[in-house]
Design brief:
This protein is of the alpha+beta class. It contains 14 helices and 12 strands. 50% of the residues lie in helices and 9% in strands. The chain has a 4-stranded mixed sheet with strand order 3-8-5-4, covered by helices on one side. A two-stranded antiparallel sheet has the order 1-2. It has a two-stranded antiparallel sheet with strand order 6-7. A hairpin with a 2-residue loop joins strand 1 and strand 2. The protein starts with a strand and ends with a strand.
C-alpha cells in the first residue's frame, strides 16, 4: 500500500505484529522524517545499531517500573490541584486540559520542575513552540514554514534549560525526579549514544502527547459507560489511603483493566514506520533491504481472532484474563518498544484514580464527533468535560 506517497508493506494482523517485533532486532530501524531528525537530533528514536542499544541501556533504569515509587508523591502533588479544578469547574476542552496536566507531570518527573517555579513558565512557553514545529511539512517545504524556524530556536532554549537543570542535579537532590539519575547515567556515555538533552526532548514529548491521548480516551470511555465508572470509582477511593497501590502490579485490577481496554481501543499512534536494513521474511513474504514497513497497533487490537467483539468497550476481558495487557502493542514491541510505557501508563492510572475520587466523568455535549489520528489520536473539536458527584 501507499503511505504518504511511498510504497509500504503494512503489518496489521495480531499474529503479524508479533512476528514483526520478534524479527525486528538487527533487521529494522525506526524511519523518521527529515523534520523529526532536525528537531530531535540524536534522540533515541533517531538512533540506529549500537548507538540505539547504548542509549536504551542508559535510559531504562530511570523509566522502568522499579523507579516509579520514587515519583509517586511529587506527581500526586501535580495531579491533585488539576483534578480538584475539574471537580469544581469542569473544563471547556478535556484534551487540552489533559495535555497541560501531562505536560506538567512530565516536566516534574523528568526535569524536577515544580508548578509555580520560574522554570515552569519558561519550559511551558518554549515547549509549546517546539511542539507546534512538529506540525511543519516533513520534507524540504519545512524550510519555508515559520513554525520550523521557531521550533529550532525553541529547541536551543530548551537545551539550555535542560543543561542548567542537569548541572544543578546531584545524587543528593530531593526525590521525585529522574534527572539526577539520568545525568549520572550519561556522564560517561559515548558520543554514539546521543546527548541527554536530545533524549529529554523525545521523552518529554512522548510522555505528554501519548499519555494525554490515552488519558483522554480513558475519561471519554468512563463518561460513556457509567456502570464501569462507578465500579472503577469504588476502587479508586482505596488509593487515597494507599497511594503505593498505584505502582503495585497486583493492585487496582479494575482500573488497570479500564486502562488496558482503552489502550486496545485507542492506541495513540495510528501507524509507526520502519525501514529494513537487510532482507527479511514476514508472513511468508520476502521483503528486500531498504523497504518501508509500517505497522498499525489498532489493526492488531481489532483482530477478532485475538479480541472477540473488538469494537466493544469490555474491560472485563482483562479482568477475566481472557486477554493480557502485556500483549498490547500501543507502545510498540521488540527492539524499539517505548521505554516510557511504565511511566505513561502509571501517569494515566494516577490521574484516572484521582479524578474518580472526586466524581464520575461526564461529557455534557456527548462524545467527540470528529477525531484526528495523527500525530496522536485525539478529538478535533473542544470537548466539554465535568466530574459529577456520584450521590
Amino acid at each position: 500500500m501507499s503511505v504518504d506517497g511511498v510504497d509500504t508493506v503494512l503489518v496489521g494482523t495480531w499474529a503479524g505484529l508479533g512476528e514483526l517485533f520478534a524479527a525486528e532486532r538487527g533487521r529494522l530501524d525506526v524511519l523518521n522524517t527529515p523534520l523529526v531528525h532536525d528537531l530531535f537530533g540524536r534522540a533515541l528514536f533517531n538512533l540506529t545499531a549500537c548507538g540505539h542499544g547504548e542509549a536504551r541501556r542508559r535510559l531504562r533504569p530511570a523509566l522502568a517500573g522499579r523507579a516509579l515509587p520514587g515519583y509517586v508523591p511529587s506527581l500526586l502533588d501535580v495531579i491533585g490541584p488539576a483534578t480538584d479544578r475539574w471537580a469544581l469547574d469542569g473544563t471547556a476542552d478535556l484534551h487540552e486540559q489533559v495535555r497541560a496536566l501531562t505536560g506538567a507531570m512530565s516536566a516534574r518527573v523528568l526535569l524536577g520542575i515544580t508548578p509555580g517555579e520560574a522554570d515552569a513558565a519558561r519550559f511551558a512557553a518554549a515547549f509549546k513552540v517546539f511542539v507546534a514545529a512538529t506540525g511543519a511539512p516533513p520534507g524540504p517545504a519545512r524550510y519555508a514554514d515559520r513554525r520550523y524556524w521557531a521550533g529550532r530556536s525553541a529547541r536551543r532554549d530548551l537545551h539550555a534549560l535542560f543543561s542548567r537543570r542537569a548541572a544543578q542535579a546531584t545524587g543528593d537532590a530531593p526525590g521525585g525526579s529522574a534527572l539526577a539519575g539520568l545525568v549520572a547515567a550519561f556522564a560517561d556515555a559515548p558520543a554514539e549514544a546521543g546527548p541527554l538533552e536530545d533524549h529529554l526532548l523525545a521523552l518529554l514529548i512522548a510522555a505528554r502527547e501519548r499519555t494525554a491521548s490515552l488519558l483522554t480516551w480513558c475519561l471519554v470511555e468512563l463518561a460513556s459507560h457509567r456502570g464501569h465508572a462507578e465500579y472503577a470509582a469504588a476502587e479508586a477511593r482505596t488509593v487515597a489511603a494507599g497511594p503505593d497501590r498505584l505502582v503495585a502490579r497486583d493492585k487496582l485490577p479494575v482500573l488497570r483493566s479500564v486502562l488496558a481496554e482503552c489502550l486496545r481501543l485507542h492506541a495513540p499512534n495510528l501507524l509507526s514506520m520502519r525501514e529494513t536494513v537487510c532482507p527479511l521474511t514476514l508472513a511468508g513474504h520476502r521483503i528486500g533491504e531498504g523497504a518501508r514497513v509500517a505497522y498499525s497497533p489498532s489493526a492488531g487490537h481489532f483482530d477478532p481472532a485475538a479480541f472477540p467483539r473488538p469494537q466493544q468497550f469490555r474491560p472485563g476481558r482483562f479482568l477475566a484474563r481472557q486477554a493480557s495487557a502485556s500483549r498490547l502493542w500501543a507502545f510498540g514491541g521488540g527492539a524499539h518498544a517505548c521505554l516510557g510505557r511504565p511511566l505513561a501508563e502509571w501517569m494515566a492510572l494516577a490521574v484516572m484514580a484521582a479524578a474518580l475520587q472526586r466524581g464520575l466523568p461526564s461529557l455534557p455535549d456527548g462524545p467527540p464527533a470528529r477525531i484526528s489520528f495523527r500525530p496522536a489520536k485525539a478529538p478535533i473539536d473542544p470537548l466539554p468535560f465535568a466530574l459529577e458527584s456520584a450521590s
